[in-house]
Amino acid sequence: MRAFAFLGTLIAIGGASTPFLILWFRHRALRDRVAAHRTITQDERELLRRHGRTSVVNFVGFWVISLGLIFALSTITVSALAEIVVLGVILAMVVGLVWQHLSTRCPVCGYRLGFQRALGVPARCERCGVSF
Ligand SMILES: [Zn+2]
Hints:
The protein is an all-alpha fold. The chain has helices spanning 2-30, 42-75, 80-102.
């Protein structure tokens, strides 16, 4: 149970600080607004939509897998090492989700679209104004 208390503390700290960090990065990136010098191509649009769908599917999958693992750990008796491994898997999935979400960039100006929207891809870039 110590591992769960540790994970709970990490989640609380991360959960409380993440929105402020994202806002800080977002405002920092938006200081240098640029005008869109071109529109995006159909291939770029399709790639963005694929990224958006993938982020939604990964988010839902993360919750299903994580809650299933936590439910399984709470109903069966396992060693402390097994608990730590499961918690490590969950934390690794969180890091992967955040990385995947923030890696989607505007093809015109390079702005990280994850700052602008929680899931999926926004209708337009808030930095350069190009429509997706
Ligand atoms: Zn842009």
